[in-house]
Design goal:
Number of helices: 5
Oligomer: single chain
Distance between the termini: 49 Å
Order of helices and strands: HHHHH
Helix content: over 70%
Largest sheet: none
Shape: globular
Length: 102
Amino acid sequence: MADFLKWIVWGPFRSVLLVLPYGMITRLARWFSFPAGFVLRGERRYLTREYGRPFPEKTKGEIRRMVRKTLALLCLNEFDSLLHAKLSPENIEDELPVTGLD
């Protein structure tokens, strides 16, 4: 089953991501963060507890929002790794323009 899911993600799902505009991909990452919160229940609880330590003045709602944003960034990071799977020092300038450095 795990191999099938990897094939779905790296095959058809990655093909869909490659043709979508980046703004749509960031929205998809935010949408995927909701089911990720249910799948990653342990990590969600851990993040909630850990965010409460350095920010004791934050309300539970604010901490929940921070955890949701963290999960959305985690999903976006995974989507970026699908988009730029073959990124290397040689081809990075094709993807990202570097300015101001000589």
